[in-house]
């Protein structure tokens, strides 16, 4: 779930080690979002068909691959991530799940892949809000679009809305950490970190605009959790 090389620097070995637990607290409905992402792709592709799926930002536990592969045995995956520690964790989870034979793991970014429309579908989950500025966000979406067949579906998921613009959601996010055992100082540290450490699109319309500029049709949202949203959109053309 990591992003471009500059953004990937914050996903060092210490963060990779805590990532799997932390991500499930930060995103209420973590497992459901991944399961629904696989369901939406299957609905768009057609049930039971073979497919090549590009997983951009697959570092961490490679949850996109592990979840979708268990539900769709005819899919194969190319998992890309620029963070070596996060990619190492992904490799470990793929090997534990017996999915390494169905998954090509590529260190680097989507731009490092051959530019050909070889993929039937793609996912970009938990990445976009880590990329600073709209141009970096457009760039990764364009890079993905160039490698998808026309009409192929993309699952895009991540935080949207400026965090400080939604104080009640931000407070609820902090309460979730408290309810999971974090003390007051830890909650405040995490709240400060999210306010300073990410640049989410500022609205759902901003997400749609980025997708349009990146080469995709209008998105359909299928999941929401506090600041988090998940959409499906097809490559234009």
From TrEMBL:
Domain of life: Bacteria
InterPro entries: Methyltransf_25, SAM-dependent_MTases_sf
UniProt entry keywords in alphabetical sequence: Methyltransferase, Transferase
Record-annotated Methyltransferase domain positions: 53-151
Pfam families to which the protein is assigned, alphabetical: Methyltransf_25
Gene3D superfamilies in the cross-refs: Vaccinia Virus protein VP39
GO biological process terms, semicolon-separated: methylation
One MF term in the entry's GO annotations: methyltransferase activity
CDD domains (UniProt xref): AdoMet_MTases
PANTHER family with a match to the protein in the record: BLR7975 PROTEIN, METHYLTRANSFERASE
Protein name: SAM-dependent methyltransferase
């Amino acid at each position: 779930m990591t992003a471009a090389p500059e953004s990937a620097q914050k996903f060092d070995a210490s963060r990779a080690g805590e990532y799997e637990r932390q991500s499930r607290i930060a995103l209420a409905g973590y497992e459901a979002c991944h399961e629904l992402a696989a369901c939406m792709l299957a609905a768009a592709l057609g049930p039971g068909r073979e497919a090549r799926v590009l997983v951009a930002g697959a570092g961490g536990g490679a949850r996109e691959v592990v979840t979708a592969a268990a539900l769709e045995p005819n899919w194969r995956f190319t998992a890309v991530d620029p963070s070596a520690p996060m990619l190492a964790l992904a490799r470990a989870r793929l090997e534990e799940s017996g999915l390494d034979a169905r998954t090509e793991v590529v260190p680097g970014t989507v731009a490092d892949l051959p530019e050909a429309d070889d993929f039937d579908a793609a996912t970009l989950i938990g990445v976009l809000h880590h990329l600073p500025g709209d141009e970096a966000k457009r760039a990764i979406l364009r890079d993905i679009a160039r490698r998808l067949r026309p009409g192929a579906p993309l699952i895009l998921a991540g935080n949207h809305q400026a965090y400080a613009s939604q104080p009640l959601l931000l407070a609820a996010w902090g309460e979730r950490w408290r309810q999971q055992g974090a003390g007051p100082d830890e909650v405040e540290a995490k709240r400060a970190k999210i306010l300073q450490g990410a640049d989410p699109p500022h609205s759902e319309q901003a997400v749609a605009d980025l997708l349009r500029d990146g080469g995709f049709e209008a998105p359909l949202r299928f999941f929401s959790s506090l600041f988090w949203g998940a959409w499906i959109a097809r490559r234009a053309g």
